């Protein structure tokens, strides 16, 4: 028996979501009285995993590019080698791509979007979001081998003092008829999926030329930028920034909504965020009912002031 | 080219979600149902394959007779035939198995699903279906072109996109970008009339597998009232975010 966590990386460096998945895996491994093993692909900072409770890292050197089938196959072989009964992944795009394939490969029950450690180990019961964050569902996994996808930013990072033993792992892999021909990725920008803070703006901003201050605010906060659906439909911002029920989900620590009314479809996608701040001229905007903090005011006055004050705050607290 | 489009019948995006029987069942009272938005993008892309590359389109849904209105809508938009697997859907695995049973018999070149549904939104049916069928699979798909048996697909990844080359048979998870909102089709009168005559076959389930069980539902705890800060008192907001919320 063991718990296995898939810890993903970007250019050889572990992602924060991976460390969170490891922290989560450690909590369950402790409850189960077993060890935590991580599987990584060509990671250069694997030893860091020890600080999050990982006992052993299986590092695969032989795979270059991401391929969901090959990754799922490699993870499956690690599960079999380590006799793992529980596999933990994050909720990144890649993890959500791999997990269903792995579930079929292992005959395992899979629950995505999990927000807490199991309320019960037998029957194994976890709480997940459903209905695009409008509700939670307590779900039992009925199979012997189980897969859990942890919702980003739901558990947090928990440090441990430990050392992980690093082992090279070389699974036997089949060819895949799917291959990546090109990748187009902005390297300098924080992504919505990885961000701890998201600054989002809506139609209240009047036009794409006014996004400079949104980007500047995001910059000061080390945040990702996002937008409401009409804003991306109008072509003011790229589709990849559209958040909400039909766009990207947001589960950050802080979500700042500027000139967004707070329609039910928008809120459904961002509700999983912990703290919500809204800036809107209309005190009756529905967003105020869903927010923790609010300013009734004009974005064009409030945002520049906020940027200035935050810069001063950051300088003081640096 | 034979295409199967998997359609999930889901509560309209404006629906307020409620549960009955002390949180054990979804309360469908007063809820309007629609084609899952991601499936609608997929269906529209399928229509382009039909119009430009002579594809045929079957649509399928797993569920009770109530899903037939949604299937008829897909027929009115332009699908050729519809299939309903008359089964309950305890989890994503059970749905994937039912879909796979039908897909195997139909030898489809392309199976289009949505990236995720907006009800149970696990995003797990597409990948499970592909894995059961041993087909290639691209999810978060924002572009797809097919030439012979070779497919070129673009997948949205965290922070960018990735172009993939793959082979049919292929399963994709569709999302906005595969077609745009303005490309979506509203069924017209003629389409609705024709849909009535198109075949809608009901098949019985062949398997009965599930791996997880929804025990109970709950709604997020209602939050306290918003704390309002005056527009000329930004320092107070920063103070609250730093000392109270501890997020900056
Ligand atoms: C099927 C379907 C799916 C949908 N999915 C999504 C989704 O995933 N995500 C999403 O976001 N929406 C979605 N929508 C759209 C949603 O219903 C709303 O129309 C949309 O969220 C509104 O965007 P908005 O708040 O930017 O614009 P508006 O509703 O126009 O609101 C603009 C706000 O800006 C405020 N404002 C104006 N001037 C200023 C100023 N100077 N300073 C500050 N505030 C100002 C106004 O008071 C207003 O509240 C969906 C709709 C449908 C039908
Ligand atoms: N009951 C169903 N019948 C047909 N297709 C479904 C059903 N449930 C899910 N799907 C398909 O699988 C996709 C992802 O659903 P899910 O895994 O529930 O997020 C949907 O967009 C549909 O294309």
Separation, N- and C-terminal Cα atoms of chain A: 45 Å
Oligomerization status of the protein chains: heterodimer
Indicate the CATH architecture of the largest domain in chain A.
3-Layer(aba) Sandwich
The CATH class of chain B? Alpha Beta
Order of the strands making up the biggest sheet of chain B: 11-10-9-12-8-1-6-7-13
Reading the helices and strands of chain B in chain order gives: EEEEEHEHEHEHEEEEHEEEH
What value does the Rg of chain A take, in angstroms? 21 Å
Task: Output the CATH topology of chain B.
Answer: Rossmann fold
Protein structure class of chain A: alpha/beta
Can you summarize this structure?
The complex is a heterodimer of chains A (318) and B (248). Chain A has 318 residues and is of the alpha/beta class. Chain A contains 8 helices and 18 strands.
What's the structural blueprint in terms of helices and strands?
The complex is a heterodimer of chains A (318) and B (248).
Chain A: E1 3-6, E2 9-10, E3 13-14, H1 16-32, E4 36-41, E5 56-60, H2 68-82, E6 86-89, H3 93-106, E7 109-114, E8 120-121, E9 124-130, E10 135-141, E11 146-150, E12 165-168, E13 179-185, E14 197-201, H4 212-221, E15 224-227, H5 229-233, E16 254-258, H6 264-270, E17 275-280, H7 287-290, E18 293-296, H8 299-317
Parallel strand pairs in A: 1-4, 1-6, 4-5, 5-12, 6-11, 7-11, 14-15, 14-16, 16-17, 17-18
Antiparallel strand pairs in A: 2-3, 8-9, 9-10
Chain B: E1 2-6, E2 9-11, E3 19-20, E4 25-26, E5 33-35, H1 37-53, E6 56-62, H2 68-77, E7 81-85, H3 92-106, E8 110-114, H4 125-133, E9 136-147, E10 150-157, E11 160-167, E12 170-174, H5 189-197, E13 200-203, E14 212-218, E15 227-228, H6 234-244
The complex binds flavin-adenine dinucleotide (FAD) and adenosine monophosphate.
